[in-house]
Input
Amino acid sequence: MDKAERRQVCELTSLLIVVAIAPSWGGIEVEMAQRSGVPAVILIPAGKKVSRLLRGNPAAVKELEYETFDQALTLLRHTLSDVLRPAPNIPSLLPCS
Output
């Protein structure tokens, strides 16, 4: 991950959406999001395995398993209003950089 990608996740993102197409896909980004207080939604294609490390990350506020692209979009639309509700800003104990 380069400096621009790190800045995008840590400073310019209010919600991280990860499509877990492989077991640990998005793990680094979700960890950086967690350290920056950014919630993450994990979209999981039906039947795909996702690592416990990714699923257990405190930033992963929602896991959505889907079978079709349209179903993924519908699930995501229904989830966004809940996930993006204002929440208390909890300062990170670890810097993202």
In short: The mean pLDDT is 84.
